[in-house]
Amino acid sequence: FTTLHPKSFIGPSSLITTTTTRQQASSSTTETIENDTSTSKWKPKVASLKDRRNLRSQEHNTETIGSKAFHHIEFYCGDAKATALRFSLALGMPIVCESGQHTGNDKCVSYGLESENVRFIVTAPYSEAVQKQAAAAAANG
Length: 141
Description:
Elements: E1 2-4, E2 15-25, E3 30-41, H1 49-59, E4 73-76, H2 80-91, E5 95-99, E6 108-115, E7 118-125, H3 128-140
Parallel strand pairs: 4-7
Antiparallel strand pairs: 1-2, 2-3, 5-6, 6-7
């Protein structure tokens, strides 16, 4: 049988050595023969950090919005409470407000997260059945 050993990488400036080893199995002995050893020097395609930064800035153009500021960003999702809790834990933004049926909003539930000048609102619509029940309750008084 033949066993191929993987290439060994030590570092970017070191030598890469590939060795192919063939083992022949017989009834009483195992013989190892090294037959292919190749050595090459690895070099990066872009040598300096300054060249890498220039290459990266050429590939990615930035897009600007023609406004000076914004009040909030609203995310629409299926489960507003779970999404707001995940955003709160991941970004460290506390939930500072909420709107739902308990505040008279029969169309959707919203949670507000705030951190200094950044405000996110996470909104999920209620189902059509809940909206029909709310409309019927409002009509009946």
